[in-house]
Amino acid sequence: MHQLTLAGKTYRSRLLVGTGKYKDFAETRAAIDASGAEIVTVAVRRVNIGQDASQPSLLDAIPPSQFTILPNTAGCYTADDAVRTLRLARELLDGHPLCKLEVLGDPTNLFPNMPETLKAAETLVKDGFQVMVYCADDPIQCKMLEDIGCVAVMPLASLIGSGMGIVNPWNLRLIIDNAQVPIIVDAGVGTASDATIAMELGCDGVLMNTAIAHAKDPVLMASAMKKGIEAGREAFLAGRMARKYYSADPSSPTTGLIGS
């Protein structure tokens, strides 16, 4: 029921998590374990995964033998920079093709630069990468990214690190209904109910970092997010009742009442 298929591989968890903003690698690992996530994204420009042999590597705490490592291009503002970063990551990870592409347009709001994102996606797909792509919640551009060959399209729920939740569910539904690849909400989730809503809308998964790492108790929040994802998926599959405005429909039988 909960399995997610990405680039031909199946995962039990539909929760994907980041590795930034924790106090240390031990807390990072504890939160990831509590989340149940199997796909873990790493900012290649900010975290050591082998670039500096003299420093501790995140891969010692989160080994590729136990997790699918998803290198990302956080901090890149041009297509060329993003492509260069992911080619480096592929070398560091022994040819690993799965990656998360993000090309930012503004350092204050971290909104994606979509022309550069589309350009980078096209180059990376042609170069053999399996691209999961962070993007605006624009149904037309999301379809363009799918047509380029991205293995997953990841529209934002709201701005990165904002915790505002899903600000435009209608666009997400348009994107989901028109997609043939997994749609994974990326950015803006603040708490477990936000993750649940994303899954109830029909998203295939949710990727988050700040909502867990900046919680007062990151490990406990990671556990809550796991449950929220699972509850939302089950609710989506179950199919909610129709909304009725002032339509009486008793939940108990109305026959056999005293005095009737």
From TrEMBL:
Keywords: Cytoplasm, Schiff base, Thiamine biosynthesis, Transferase. It catalyses: [ThiS sulfur-carrier protein]-C-terminal-Gly-aminoethanethioate + 2-iminoacetate + 1-deoxy-D-xylulose 5-phosphate = [ThiS sulfur-carrier protein]-C-terminal Gly-Gly + 2-[(2R,5Z)-2-carboxy-4-methylthiazol-5(2H)-ylidene]ethyl phosphate + 2 H2O + H(+). InterPro entries: Aldolase_TIM, Thiazole_synthase_ThiG, ThiG. It is found in: Cytoplasm. The active site is at K100 (schiff-base intermediate with dxp). Residues 6-253 form the Thiazole synthase ThiG domain. Its EC number is 2.8.1.10. It is an enzyme of class 2 (transferase). 1-deoxy-D-xylulose 5-phosphate binds at G161, A187, G188, N209, T210. SUPFAM superfamilies: ThiG-like. GO terms for molecular function: thiazole synthase activity. Pathway: Cofactor biosynthesis; thiamine diphosphate biosynthesis. GO terms for cellular component: cytoplasm. Its main location: cytoplasm. One of its GO terms (biological process) is thiamine diphosphate biosynthetic process. Catalyzes the rearrangement of 1-deoxy-D-xylulose 5-phosphate (DXP) to produce the thiazole phosphate moiety of thiamine. Sulfur is provided by the thiocarboxylate moiety of the carrier protein ThiS. In vitro, sulfur can be provided by H(2)S. Homotetramer. Forms heterodimers with either ThiH or ThiS. Belongs to the ThiG family. This is Thiazole synthase. It comes from Dechloromonas agitata. The gene is thiG.
